[in-house]
Design a protein that fits this description.
This protein is α+β, with helices and mostly antiparallel strands. The chain contains 22 helices and 16 strands. The strands form 6 sheets. It has a 4-stranded mixed sheet. It has a 4-stranded mixed sheet with strand order 13-16-15-14. A two-stranded antiparallel ribbon has the order 1-2. It is globular. Bound molecules: adenosine-5'-triphosphate. Adenosine-5'-triphosphate (ATP) binds at residues 63-65, 71-72, 123, 125-131, 175-179, 402-403.
Length: 568
């Protein structure tokens, strides 16, 4: 166990004697220089102390991925739970800083003062946010273990995270288990402070990954788990081939696990689905839709014989289209029409456009992304409908968004959104750590020196200025009365506004369709390609019409039944 007894300096005398080298709390350091802080964190990390406090409300965690660090587990959890119970929730500081201790404190405040609590996880991709969140939830489960009902609920929450991890995580260049979506989880408490339910809200699912994945990355884990884990009967029912290389959407991607590990992961997924309320029928629907998406990706198109613009693309392998159509509950000809024709607004009139092979491929991929996005939303709605309660007195909220990514690679719209969200969270954090308490003291007439810190105000300014900020420009260009602008026009508009503002946090390279933003975590290059489409990303009216039509098999309709899903 990495936990060690250590006294914490509370008064000034103790503080003078405080050994900076392994300080539990960075606010207690004599020298609060960058060097002093990083030195302390480094030493603590080398001593297997993963966590360090910054005052009472902020915890720094350094991913202890190195061998030898045993920072979690039942024994350590028990020590912190005993600590909680022996002190009736009070903080005793005898144990080293830990996420379990933060869980103790949050739960204690919620119970004692009936004030809602929120925990925000911020960090680079791969820094360990999701893992730390899981540890928080596991420990909360330990604190609630006295009640069977509450313990069961916390287990269900852990299983919900397993489901989200299968459908929303992938191997990326920065993280073997990167969350390609954001999740806000609210644990609900009743008037007596007992956990009564939980609900989730997902954000920013990287839908694009379904149809195109960088060579050194993977698609969402659920696809590989499905292929490796289904029984021969199930495979034959879903008409699946066990080899991921058989599927266009998985072909160029990296394998991330051995077949037997994937098969075990699939078992775990099925069991997690069952625990959060997906009965075998619903599970079968989920997997059938995943299979349909894989089959959709294998449909190939040829250009029409006459390129007059009045003939649509031809399907090269109609048998694959028939399989996909069957799983989606559509007639093959309906799916063929959906993929080879498109309704477009031309001069405010809805016109049907014939798609060539390239257009049909794009339409097919858009359908796959749309189905996956709806599937993901449906999972959230299903979990919420089973496990949330309507009446809650208090909540404990946990926010975990995809981490920030800097580096040399060119990033896309989804990462722009994630990085923007991380800027806002960091800004919020800085305000609460450095500004809000100082303001409170000043209001009480107490003068305290202000602390210098690296503010991300320039990036916030660039991104969120009311009219000339990048996000505002993006919205304006999407909502023009004459229709959305092109990506090139968007970049031009960004460039013009920033030149007028003389904002050096921004540079643009129109010939490469790229721009860079200086974020607080580094300079990031974005390709503007796809920004407009992704920003609008509504469900195509063609898709909605077809799936709402009469005669569609119930297999696809659950996705469209929940109004709130369609409205998203
Ligand atoms: N305490 C820990 N002990 C051992 N391994 C850890 C620990 N924390 C994180 N890791 C490992 O580090 C990797 C990254 O962790 P995690 O997926 O939680 O990062 P993240 O910050 O949520 O990233 P992203 O923003 O990309 O989702 C994972 O493989 C995880 O298992």
């Amino acid at each position: 166990m990495a936990a060690r007894m250590k006294s914490n300096p509370r008064d000034s005398e103790q503080r003078l004697a405080y050994d900076d080298s392994l300080a539990e709390d960075l606010t207690m350091l004599h020298s609060k220089s960058n060097e002093g802080i990083t030195d302390t964190l480094k030493k603590r990390y080398n001593e297997n102390f993963t966590y360090t406090k910054v005052g009472a409300r902020v915890l720094v965690s350094i991913n202890p991925i190195h061998v030898g660090a045993q920072t979690e587990g039942p024994e350590i959890m028990k020590a912190y739970a005993d600590d909680y119970h022996s002190l009736a929730g009070g903080r005793n500081d005898a144990l080293p800083s830990h996420i379990y201790q933060l869980a103790n404190t949050s739960y204690f405040h919620l119970k004692r003062s009936a004030i809602d609590q929120a925990v925000i996880f911020i960090g680079d991709s791969g820094s360990g946010k999701s893992r730390t969140k899981r540890a928080f939830i596991q420990h909360l489960g330990q604190l609630l273990a006295g009640s069977k009902k509450e313990a069961k609920l916390m287990k269900q929450l852990e299983h919900a995270l397993i489901v989200y991890s299968s459908f929303g995580c992938a191997l990326s260049s920065d993280n073997p288990t990167a969350s390609r979506f954001g999740l806000y989880t609210e644990i609900q408490f009743d008037t007596r402070g007992r956990a009564a339910g939980f609900r989730c809200l997902d954000y920013l699912l990287e839908r694009h990954r379904v149809t195109s994945t960088a060579a050194h990355e993977t698609n969402f884990f659920a696809f590989y788990q499905l292929l490796a884990g289904t029984s021969p009967e199930e495979r034959s029912h879903f008409q699946l081939n066990q080899e991921s290389s058989h599927y266009a959407y998985l072909r160029s991607t990296r394998t991330y696990s051995t077949p037997s590990q994937l098969s075990n992961e699939f078992k775990t997924l099925k069991s997690a689905l069952r625990t959060v309320g997906f009965n075998p029928k619903f599970q079968s629907q989920l997997f059938q839709l995943l299979a349909a998406i894989l089959h959709l990706g294998n449909i190939q198109f040829l250009n029409p014989n006459h390129q007059s613009g009045e003939e649509a693309a031809l399907v090269r392998n109609f048998d694959v289209l028939e399989t996909a159509a069957d799983f989606l509950g559509l007639h093959a000809t309906t799916l063929e029409g959906l993929l080879t024709y498109k309704t477009k607004l031309i001069k405010k009139e809805a016109c049907t456009v014939f798609l060539d092979a390239e257009g049909a491929r794009e339409q097919r991929d858009e359908l796959s992304r749309c189905l996956y996005g709806l599937l993901f939303s449906w999972i959230t709605e299903h979990i919420n409908s089973r496990l949330s309660v309507k009446a809650q007195e208090n909540f404990l909220g946990l926010l975990d968004l995809p981490g920030s990514v800097a580096g040399n690679q060119v990033n896309h719209f989804q990462q722009f959104c994630a990085n923007y969200a991380n800027e806002r969270l960091f800004h919020y954090l800085c305000y609460h750590v450095f500004e809000s308490s100082t303001e409170a003291y000043r209001e009480d007439g107490i003068q305290i020196p202000s602390v210098e810190y690296i503010s991300n105000q320039p990036a916030i300014h660039l991104l969120s200025r009311r009219t000339s900020g990048l996000v505002s420009i993006l919205h304006r260009q999407a909502n023009r009365s004459r229709g959305p602008a092109s990506d090139t026009a968007l970049l031009q508009a960004m460039l013009k506004e920033q030149e007028d503002e003389k904002d050096d946090s921004f540079t643009a390279n129109p010939s490469m369709s790229q721009f860079t933003v200086r974020h607080f975590f580094g300079v990031v290059c974005y390709s503007v390609e796809g920004f407009m489409d992704n920003n609008i990303a509504g469900v195509s009216p063609d898709f909605v019409q077809v799936f709402r039509g009469k005669g569609v098999s119930p297999l696809a309709t659950p996705l469209y039944l929940g109004c709130s899903i369609v409205q998203r």
